[in-house]
Amino acid sequence: MSTVMDTELVVVGGGPAGLAAAIRAAECGTSVVLIEENVSLGGKLRGQLHEELSGEWWIGWDLSSDLASKAQKLGITILTETVVWGVEDGWRVRVSSSRGGTDAVSEITARAVLIATGAVECSMPAPGWTLPGVITIGGAQVLTNIHRVRPGKRTVVVGVDPLSITIGRSMKLGDVEVESIVLPPASVHLSSPVETLKRLAGLSKLAPYFYMRFGGKLLALPGLASVAARLLPRSLSLWGIPLKLSTRLVRVVGDDCVTGVELERVKPNGQAVPGSRRIVAVDSVCLSNGLVPLNDLAGALGLEFVNSSSVGGRVPLHSTAGATQKPGLYLAGNALGVEGAKVALKQGEIAGSEIASYLGHQPYQERERELSELRRMRRESEFTFNEHIQAGHDEVEALFQKRVTSGTR
Description:
The chain is α/β, with parallel strands linked by helices.
């Protein structure tokens, strides 16, 4: 027999934003049910491992465990291995548990709902990409940092972004020979050296050497990316991993599984260098083509969406504190825009306080201070997926306030 549960707040998604929001709301006196489809809380935070500029290591596994423990101590009802397949106005949340059982919860009624479903990887179609041994960079992160399984003995990472660079290093630390990080195929955006160098301007904080960090800042100046592309060496070293910004993937080689990749050199404008194609032997390929906000649930609720490349794609109209056009429905984390875990944690805390205030538990007196802190965190973030992301958030907020003023919220 299925069970109906009642609570004040349902949080959909047990990643950093969802956990932080649930904890903050519970601390303010809100009864909370936290739903996560995986067996453990933390989301992709569990697989994050990188060295910060301070020299300290960011270990997402430990942070996830600490947050989950805190949520349990606060009395938050945690439903793992549970999928939300519908959210209805009112609020009524429909769920299914893979654990089954006669007492499985199938429906939850609430006064507010927070959607913190994160982001999803973009595919990178290329000849041979369906062969066994080809995985996404997120898949490589889960295998390496969560399950301690090497995705292969020798791999090539395709795509240059924060994920490919940091997870490439994680694989190397996990005894995987990372042959190189190269550009994506010609059919994919950011496949030319000039385009990639412009993007690297926002990633310069990740560089291990001072000259790379300084040079990355210079790339943001108009015209310098084109000049740098012409002077670029064929290979740069990042923690011993060759970063080849003038080499791109042509195809994945193999019959029943990956046996290699075909690569070619390219000119600064992305044109192939004739006669430069060669086969490199590897047993795995990791594809990294960026992330987009995952908002399937919100999309079924009739919300107005806006398309912003600065925040990573289409997102529901919302305020900076996560409120949507529907009273009682909130968003947090990468569902609002693709950013790093630290920003997602702060967004979750802000949303948690906003919801508690909406439910009448505790006035949110620190809103402006925390929103200011959120902006500072974006400016100082080591993981910047788009250097204009704050401008994107400001544009969405301005449109949301316009709708509120006109009475069409």
